[in-house]
Amino acid sequence: MGLYLSDRQEWVARSEIRNTSxxxxxxxxxxxxxxxxxxxxxxxxxxxxxxxxxxxINVYTRxxxxxxxREAIGRKYTASTGIEVDPESEVIASSGTTGAFYCAALxxxxxxxxxxxxxxxxxxxxxxxxxxxxxxxxxxxxxPDWAVSEREIEQAMTPRCRALVLxxxxxxxxxxxxxxxxxxxxxLARAHDLFVFTDEIYEDFVYDGIRHIPPAVIExxxxxxxxxxxxxxxxxxxxxRIGYCICDRKWARSIGFFNDLIYVCAPAPxxxxxxxxxxxxxxxxxxxxxxxxxxxxxxxxxxxHKAGLVPFVPKGAYxxxxxxxxxxxxxxxxxxxxxxxxxxxxxxxxxxFYHDDAGESLxxxxxxxxxxxxxxACLRIERFHP
Length: 386
Known about the structure:
The protein is an alpha/beta fold. Helices cover 41% and strands 15% of the residues. The chain has twelve helices and 13 strands. Strands 2-8-7-6-5-3-4 form a seven-stranded mixed sheet, sandwiched between helices. α5 links the parallel β3 and β4. α2 (43-54) crosses α9, α3 (67-81) runs parallel beside α9 (268-280) and α4 (96-108) crosses α8. It is globular and about 55 Å long.
């Protein structure tokens, strides 16, 4: 028979986000494609990691992370949700939010299980589901406010439906699900006995006075919600890979065992850096970050408007989807490449966020950049003439 790749390899091909970033790097452009925070890491976080290295905290941790980190995560979660969690049995520190989601999917889903995903989606959610043999079922959100339809969600559910993925605030749309929407989704999850996997990595990036509502706080959702989040974005440490999962102890132990199998543990001294940040940075830090990013959002949206590329102004996260219809190109990839060639600005083709051709007129721009870089990018965008 000879040697060959596994069938699942086709689901983990290099993402459009990385493809565009590589093209941008080759040309020396400004990368507004990849969601890499190039802002300064808080001193408390850096110093905490450095001290841990000097103190010899450099060996394997427990399969679910250092006790200090699990306790700090539990305190932050309880402060924001009012839900008490047991750091010993309900919190798993993992290799980023994507790592936590992968371990949860391995523990709770079987091959052939169907999982509802709202689109536009984050492509790693799709790749993860397919990697464990689950089948994504797509429910379209409608712009400009990315509304979801209860009727369409219910129509997408079959007896094989096992779970729903809920990314709030959402990448790439910036949608922040309202309490009414969450209550509607919770009602369907209870009626159909579904798990709800949440990705709340952008929970602190919310704008215009809106508050992030964790889905687990909705009545009847505590047991069936598997919350994943992390610190890559809020502490600008995307390369550290420190995330976590919070869920009922009935599920947490198995998720932790898969975490042990796949990752062994997140880097021990870096876990301690996050502990220091969680313990020393108060609510004023998170509020400051949200204010700064709202200003960045407004700057980028203004530039896109001036260029005739109408943005869908996000309420959360740090991306903007924009209408690229005026840009030459047969599809979203050609449009993004034309825009990169003309401006030196990289964006992600809209096709990366849809399972069909619905995103071919869209592109995603990231505004998690230092002010002087974002200002330079916006000047280039404003000078663009389709």
